[in-house]
Amino acid sequence: MEELLLEFQSRMLLFQMNYKRYLFDKVDLSNRLIAIKGVRGVGKTTLLLQFAKFNFPKSSTLYVSMDHVYFYENNLYEMAKEFDNYGGTHLLLDEVHKYPNWSREIKLIYDNLPRLNVVLTSSSVLELYKSESDLSRRMVSYDLHELSFREFLFLETGLELTAHSLSDLMENHVEIAGEILQHFQPLPLFEKYLKVGAYPYFMENEQSYYHKVMTTINLMIEVDIMAVENLRYETIVKFKKLLKAIATSVPFTPNISKLSERIGLSRNSLVESIKTLNKVGIIQELYKDATGIGLLTKPEKLLLNNTNLIYVLANENANIGNIRETFFANQLSCQYHVDLAPKGDFLIDRKFTFEVGGKNKSSKQITGVKNSFIAKDNIEVGFGNIIPLWMFGLLY
């Protein structure tokens, strides 16, 4: 175990990332077993290392990635026992799904080593879904979302803007926009965010950004889903065809019969595939009323999970209406309940109706609807119930 401790200490000496994601201050670190869920590439490893740097005692903390060669010949529980005997207090386990039968040994650690606090991450959201029921009484879970527009702005420009609640935006968006416009023009940076801002990859090399996102998509389908669902290769190809269909469509209301014929899956297999892709965080499935959703209930609208995925999968065929709605649903879903609205596009927390469109979008779809707003693209500042679309990137 000494090699793990030495590697961790060396890594911490080189670790420079001081910017903290929105989730950093929201995690209650007094819990003994914490899971950080999130799709590949959103920054879970960085978050763990920041907990080690800023929150936990250096002399009694250990970070280890669960695909480390150490675990070829050693098991997790025995390592944790040895670390506990060393006086260890905080064990940070990255990519825990890469360790076979991890939930069984985590349960043993929790039950038998009460002095040890464990924070774990997994990119395999499906694997965590499977194991959460076993650990539900012990584990507290948090979701790490993709970068918001606000977070992207800081990493791109160094400008640190305040996060605003939805109610604050609805009531004070004109004043908030006016203050921001004194410092920079948001629209060019917003356009860049929609293309390359959802994942921290852009900080390393913008030219290879789409390649890295495509690699991430392939890993989610070919590794994460395969590990749990045990799919045949031809089914994986059909998953990718489905994603391409969603990416190149106008905001996508699926005709399941036509889509199943186009993709080559039966109706039930197609609906199950959609729900699997939703669970791993590649797509968003939306309903007019999300209560009583069954395993084979078809979604009423399909969107990719973020706008960068559209640009990667659709290339020049990206539809601007799809991009706008995808951005809005993605940013709101981090903290609010998102349904389709009876009139307009989205119903937030079953109370607020939003219509999403370009700067010439009229209000006729929401005329007479209480608590209704228009999220307009290509405007810097709004008025009344018209709010600039970019401002919904300030929510976290």
Automatic annotation (TrEMBL):
Domain of life of the native organism: Bacteria
Residue intervals of the AAA+ ATPase domain: 30-150
Residue stretches in coiled coil: none
Pfam family, one: AAA_14
InterPro entries: AAA+_ATPase (IPR003593), AAA_14 (IPR041682), P-loop_NTPase (IPR027417)
Protein name (database record): AAA family ATPase
Origin organism lineage: Bacteria, Pseudomonadati, Bacteroidota, Flavobacteriia, Flavobacteriales
